[in-house]
Amino acid sequence: MSPVLIKGARPYGEGDPVDVLVEDGVITAIGSVRVPDGAEVIEAGGQVLLPGFVDLHTHLREPGREDTETIETGSAAAALGGYTAVFAMANTDPVADNAVVVEHVWRRGREVGLVDVHPVGAVTVGLKGEKLAELGTMNRSAAGVRVFSDDGLCVADPLLMRRALEYSTSLDVVIAQHAEEPRLTVGAQAHEGERAARLGYTGWPASAEESIVARDCLLAFHAGARLHVCHVSTSGTADVLRWAKDRGTRVSAEVTPHHLLLTDERLTSYDPVNKVNPPLRTGTDAEKLRAALAEGVIDCVATDHAPHAVQDKDCEWSAARPGMLGLQTALSIVAETMVRTGLLDWRGVARVMSERPAEIGNLPDHGRPIEVGEPANLTLVDPDAEWTVRGPELASVSANTPYEGMRLPGVVTATLLRGRITAREGKIA
Ligand SMILES: NC(=O)N[C@@H](CC(=O)O)C(=O)O
Ligand SMILES: [Zn+2]
Ligand SMILES: [Zn+2]
């Protein structure tokens, strides 16, 4: 593997530009560095250098729905979006609820080699919410599963959730919950509020999320277990998290880029590209979520990248599947909602997109400081450049981006995985 010299980059967007030399997958020099023989040179021109992003919440759809995304195409989207590691959710077909499936996903991710693909294991067999899957077997498999979730569905039974949390403590793994009380969201189509009412959609109330988060925080507290809350969407959930953290609960939480930027005002377009679970909420929710992320009450950003086929999106709202693409647009949405607004600086972006997710997902080689001797998982971002989102040009098989045609700030210009360039100038290397 040839050395890579990143010339004139600003780590965390701070200070004067420096050269960063990468050899054998490790950062070996930072400062003013002479170009070594055979080195690939990246002229950074003062761009922002960050630790490679880590996504705790991705749907890669393989096995089962390769017509919408594969581990290969999803990995490409991730690398182009600045990611060096992703956690692939278990709601595949077959479900990733056993060692065979999680090892398959993990191996395929390694073969593709663009990002580290860490399979999430299901909490319950077949995501049915009836009995616990063999968490220990998945944890001890080659895939080394460290995050478990029934995402797409909520582990609604409190006894089962309690057992999962208690069992998780002996494995030192985290249970990630899709917080949705199913009894409160029967037939739900959109955020419960004035807009949904006017359009005649059954509402998805904030309380369906908040009641599960409150319950789970209490269960986790009493079990001494680690809980991770997926895609926080309401300001009330942020309040519950603040309370739970204050009393010492081992809880972490993520917010998606779309819940930071988009609101239920989008409903009036009737375009199912805006249908997602949990639904787009109000402008006040989005504002409070941004503040909670800046404050650390919400730990990190996760994409909930959810590719869907044309026939599952280009249809009547009520028949459409929920979910939207996220991997290639996440950095730009964070730049727009958090950096341009002054809520986070680039060091803060490193925290919410790399360091915290790596800690929560227990990835010791990711989210590391940009220092000599550290693994070279790195992302170079041009903070001043802008680009226009075009669904069909994204690397995903699917094209269901809610940002179609939008001009966004922040362009990922290079991604390095263990010292190897995986993406460069918008192309897979
Ligand atoms: N977010 C979504 O709307 N959809 C996800 C499932 C999920 O994250 O709950 C999917 O798998 O399509
Ligand atoms: Zn979910
Ligand atoms: Zn999801």
UniProtKB/TrEMBL annotation:
Catalytic activity: (S)-dihydroorotate + H2O = N-carbamoyl-L-aspartate + H(+)
The name this protein goes by in its record: Dihydroorotase
Residues involved in Zn(2+) 2 binding: 151, 178, 231
Gene (name only): pyrC
Pfam families referenced in this protein's UniProt entry, alphabetically: DHOase
Pathway: Pyrimidine metabolism; UMP biosynthesis via de novo pathway; (S)-dihydroorotate from bicarbonate: step 3/3
Active-site residues, as the UniProt record annotates them: 304
EC number: 3.5.2.3
PROSITE patterns: DIHYDROOROTASE_2
Family: Belongs to the metallo-dependent hydrolases superfamily. DHOase family. Class I DHOase subfamily.
Originating species: Amycolatopsis samaneae
